[in-house]
Design goal:
- This protein has 484 residues and is an all-alpha fold.
- The chain has one domain.
- It has 21 helices and 2 strands.
- A two-stranded antiparallel ribbon has the order 1-2.
- Helix 8 packs parallel to helix 10 and helix 10 runs antiparallel to helix 20.
Length: 484
């Protein structure tokens, strides 16, 4: 009896435990304890550990006919993209670029292919582990558990930065126990991520989509009706504390778009409630207090953000050119890298230079204005610097490394995912509408987010799309016969 119960536990529950652990550890982006990785490898998701156990377990269970694994149609354009990437990466070896700071083409190509394999692991496992409402609830609950840990650690950082209750060096040592980077010196909250911008990206593409969808559709994944609204408020406060311009603008813009697409009935209900409540003094006071609270929150947020030069300079248009404006708002280095990578695309428009190889050509294509006005570029050009440059924009990176064909295949994959999400409109269940709103929010956020990052490893761009593709409908992969 005990043996049969143990076997049942191993086959039925272990995969869920590992998937829950994957969701719980999503916030840790740069885990210190990874073997065989150099100092330059910053994207190190802790979630890779449980995921590395989960995928072989699922395959074994599928082989033994204990589970059915999903085959989604979105894997067809994705497969075409991967095959093309492998082909152009092999082709890029014929160009044979000059080694840069100890890096050679084959090493960068293998590294790049491994990184995209990690991203694919998140995407495919999300499809396999999310087939119905129960799976979705399980996934989101454990995501929220990880979010709670992330918010708690962010709060600890805030206490360290803005009070004398905790010693900064002591908290820095705590953080170095799991992260490759200690506390940010500029008093910007980074949570369990490598840097504030990464934390903001997580909130915009993973956590806030589900929180916003829960509030908008009034769907809850737990019995605690107050949990999602409270977590949404805390998430927005944490997002403010990152001082990430991209993260804040993306989140606010996508909130507005998602509300426009899916919240018009809610907006009408709010408007009717507001306009029909001026008959009693108490109702009038409630509305006045509400307006005051909203205005106060907006004013307080603007005052808080105005403490940093990176926000004050956004509205300073006293510049003679776009490049000068980019330098003034401390985005000159990012603009220079993107300009350089785009020049690589112009030299190799159809197939690019091979995945991971854009850095070999970037220094020779840097724009003239960046050589004298951007301190970061000057540091990069120092012969003692060992950093390998990157484009800072996923779309431009794909153009430079896979050419126009690879870029079109990537867009086809992305729009196929959106089509799968919108296919959920045919279903009228409340939980389906919740998933749809969260999915569209995440898709829009990822679309904008990719203008500010160039990593194919980060779970941010794979996780929620994989969940929605899994929920949108899948076909079981045939199980191999035991004799084969």
């Amino acid at each position: 009896m005990k043996n049969s119960m143990r076997f049942a536990f191993n086959t039925a529950d272990l995969s869920r435990i590992l998937w829950g652990a994957t969701m719980l550890t999503i916030p840790v982006t740069s885990f210190r304890w990874f073997p065989f990785l150099g100092e330059g490898t910053l994207v190190r998701p802790l979630a890779m550990y449980p995921l590395a156990l989960l995928i072989p377990l699922l395959l074994i269970q599928w082989r033994r006919r204990k589970v059915k694994l999903g085959w989604a149609n979105a894997l067809i354009p994705l497969g075409a993209l991967i095959l093309f990437i492998v082909a152009v990466t092999c082709l890029g070896a014929l160009i044979d670029p000059v080694p840069l700071r100890g890096q050679i083409y084959s090493g960068r190509a293998i590294r790049a292919l491994i990184t995209i394999s990690i991203g694919l692991a998140f995407f495919i496992s999300a499809i396999w582990m999310n087939k119905n409402e129960d799976d979705l609830r399980f996934t989101v609950r454990w995501l929220f558990a990880g979010l709670c840990l992330d918010i708690a650690w962010s709060g600890l950082q805030a206490v360290t930065y803005y009070t004398e209750l905790l010693d900064r060096e002591m908290v820095a040592h705590w953080q170095l126990a799991f992260s490759v980077r200690e506390l940010i010196r500029t008093n910007r909250i980074s949570g369990m991520a490598y840097e504030p911008a990464w934390l903001a990206g997580q909130f915009a593409t993973i956590f806030i989509p589900f929180l916003f969808a829960s509030v908008l559709t009034n769907f809850r994944v737990t019995r605690l009706k107050w949990l999602e609204p409270v977590l949404l408020v805390l998430s927005m406060l944490t997002l403010l504390a990152t001082y990430s311009r991209g993260g804040l603008l993306i989140t606010l813009a996508v909130m507005g778009l998602t509300f426009l697409f899916f919240g018009r009935s809610v907006l009408r209900a709010i408007w009717n409630w507001f306009m029909n409540g001026f008959n009693k003094l108490l109702d009038i006071l409630v509305r006045v207090v509400l307006i005051g609270a909203i205005a106060g929150s907006l004013t307080g947020s603007l005052v808080f953000l105005n403490q940093k030069d990176i926000f004050r300079r956004i509205l300073d248009f006293n510049a003679a050119s776009l490049s000068e404006y980019m330098v003034n708002i401390e985005a000159g280095a990012r603009g220079a890298y993107m300009t350089s990578a785009f020049a690589e695309f112009e030299d190799h428009p159809l197939t690019g230079v091979g995945l991971g190889a854009s850095g070999f050509y970037m220094y020779q294509n840097l724009p003239d204005w960046s050589l004298t006005t951007v301190p970061e570029i000057a540091k990069q050009l120092d012969p003692s610097n060992r950093l390998y440059p990157n484009p800072k924009n996923l779309y431009i990176r794909l153009l430079a490394e896979t050419g126009l064909i690879g870029f079109i295949l990537f867009l086809a994959f992305q729009f196929h995912i959106l089509g799968d999400m919108l296919g959920l409109l045919r279903r009228k269940e409340t939980w389906v509408r919740f998933a749809l709103v969260a999915g569209v929010f995440a898709w829009l956020a990822i679309t904008f987010y990719n203008f500010t990052q160039d990593s194919l490893t980060t779970p941010n761009i794979w996780l929620v799309p994989g969940v929605l593709v899994g929920l949108s409908g899948w076909n079981a992969v045939p199980t191999l016969d035991k004799e084969t």
